[in-house]
Amino acid sequence: MKATLLKNTHDLPLSEPAPVAVPVGEPVPHTRVHSVERTDQVETGVWECSPGRFRRQIVEQEFCHFTHGSCTFTPDGGEPIEIKAGDALLLPANSLGVWDVKETLRKTYVIISR
C-alpha cells in the first residue's frame, strides 16, 4: 500500500456543495469534500461545511483535524464539545450526535471502517 498525500489542504479544490443528509433546522448546511478511498477500509480527505446544524450519520471511527472555522459537536447523551481551527478530535465508532457549525468549517479526516 502506498502513502496517501493530501497537499495544501487549506486550498485543496473540493466537490460542488451538496446539502447535508439530515439537517436540523435552518439554514441547511452544505458540504464539499475531496476524498481518497483506499483498499484497506480507510478513507481520508478534506471536508468543508457551511454554517447550520445537522445529525452525524457516520458510524465508523473518525479522526479529524480542524483547519478553519468553529463548531460544537454534541454526542447523543453527552456534553457539548467546542471545536475551533487547530483542534483535533477522535470520534469512536457509533458516535452519533448533532454538529452545530458556527463558522464555515474545514477539516482533514481519516475514517477507519474496521
TrEMBL record:
Superkingdom in the source lineage: Bacteria
Pfam families reported for this sequence: Cupin_3
SUPFAM superfamilies: RmlC-like cupins
Domain (S)-ureidoglycine aminohydrolase cupin per the UniProt entry, residue ranges: 37-109
Protein name: Cupin domain-containing protein
